[in-house]
Amino acid sequence: MVDVVRTSKRLSYVLRHHPGCIGIALDAAGWVDVDDLLAALAAHGLRLTRTQLDEVVASNDKQRFAFDESGTRIRASQGHSVAVDLGYETADPPAELFHGTVERFLPAILADGLRPGRRHAVHLSADVGTARTVGGRRGRPVVLRVDAARLAGDGAQFSRSANGVWLVDAVPPGYLAVV
Ligand code: HQG
Q1: Which residue from 77, 68, 71, 75 is spatially nearest to 24, judged by alpha carbons?
Q2: How remote is the CA of residue 35 from the centroid of ligand 1, in Å?
Q3: Which structural domain range is residue 150 located in?
């Protein structure tokens, strides 16, 4: 039996942040050949069949990984810290989006706005519940409402990842309100 959660965490680590730790490289859009990935993982202690990989990808609670159309390559759908261009098209966001964080970050966020930190983009959720879960990873969650329509109207480019996360470069403080 494959441990899907543990395997997903390992895949996130490799496909978003540290492909070099198992000796692979991602292409410019974040893809890697599935056979190369499985061989590299096996060489570093994680033996996984293609069927087991399919199971991890399909059962992932947030659909973090995607195969290309031919099924020969795989990538993380968002969340990278390494340089990749995921190629998502610019999309009109809903009027409001949400960001989950914790109290201790609020003074900095309300002064500087939301910044991507070590990731490529600020991650926003379409609903309050999801944002609360994201914030809850770090403590008691605080949810911020983003005036996405106005921010887009003022020129910010939004895109939506294959797994439904809204991405934007930054959110200045004037577009934020605590829910
Ligand atoms: C905070 C997980 C100080 C921000 C989740 C957050 C999400 C600031 C932290 C995805 C700040 C960054 C992303 C500022 C933002 N000053 N703190 N100006 N601007 N912050 O993990 O959004 O399970 O990089 O509030 O579910 O928490 O990995 O971003 O607390 O979808 O697939 O800096 O990661 O998905 O933290 O989470 P992160 P995030 P996965």
Answers
A1: 75
A2: 31
A3: 96-178
